[in-house]
Please model this.
Amino acid sequence: MTTKTTGAADAALRNHIRALLTERQAHVLLDDVLEGFPPGRINDRPEGVPYSAWEVLWHLRFTQRDILDFVRDEGYVEPEWPAGYWPDNTREATPEDWHAEARTFQEDLAALLTLLDDPSTDLLAVVPNGAKPGGGGQTWLREFLLVADHNAYHVGQLMLLKRLLGGG
Model:
């Protein structure tokens, strides 16, 4: 059984989640990483690092979209883990690819924030795909926090790569 948050508590919780997704809350934001990132180095893998900045950005965007699809698309099908969550490394990305991924990431984040701001989104309710047979019982709150946690982790990796690659 789920108890819906109401009134001031609901508004406060939504504000905290929004801040976690959009403000510097003990972590940097993607915009902080993108500013001054050396575009000619997006495909480089520093010594000892198993991925490039391009691969991390692609994964970050893809996974956020996957969560968005999970919460809103009835026909959602989970990609194969872990291979389905990382790019095919058969080609190098271009700066245009880099910017397109960043733009799509921001668009998908805006879509998640729209769901967060919708008063009909009961944060403690199980999302439709989580309620299906075999679903994991995931709530809206859990999915928003998962996005915030995952984004913070990988944006931090991108910031480290930026420094290692000479972007400041």
